[in-house]
Design a protein that fits this description.
mainly alpha; 12 helices
Amino acid sequence: MIFCKDMEVHLTILKAIILGLVQGLTEFLPISSSGHLVLAQSILKIKETPLFFDIMLHFGTLMAVIVFFWRDIWEILSALFGRDPNIRKSTKHYKTKYSARRFALYIIIGTIPTVIIALILKKTVETAFMNPLLVSIMLIVTGLILFVSGKFGQKEKSLNVINSLIIGIAQGIATLPGISRSGITISTALILGIDNEKSARFSLLMSLPAILGATILEIKDIESIDVSIGSVIAGVLVAFITGYIAIKFLVRVLSHGHFSKFAYYCWVIGILGIIWHVI
């Protein structure tokens, strides 16, 4: 992702912290982590972040999901390898109980179209990452999706195979930088009539195989660890801590029905990004 010839290659600890902050806060909030990282690298004049550093940032946010949903994950794994309990309440924000084995099945079903679409869009995504202007436009599109989802009232529909596939397709589209993964998956679930609580839980837990899969695919392309250990540690810690805080904040926002209000933020950032790269 080369933006101009005079961009810096060296990744300082300060810049690593900033990128970790951006990754952690935007990975789970519906405002597009990839879009913000592209714009942040452009503004910070970072030519391209080392692949190893990118992978470790994703590891930080992955750990945030695992720590936040550790009880749910344990119940799902237990169901897959033996008993099938109802998933218990993990936080005070969640009250729903459901079959852990069935929920795991829905995550697998939703992941399948995500993988297929991600492979189809691979070249397009790589090109899009080099175009901050396009990313800014996609942020505005994300805002529109969030705004539309807010027009649908609360319903009590349950997850099923069809819903899982549709949400998985939405997650695949979110590989495009500027389209928020959590934003489009939760919005899709809300539009399908699934309540806020189930929508958030399914979206965030479905991010685990998505993030893990993307990380594994990137590992094979590592040629060297061309970044200081200090920068890596700083970036990962910040990504983990802010990622955990972002998940907690998202759950609270959804419980109060204010999810669509993130649309205004996406519009503002998208418009500012366009102005920044046009003027």
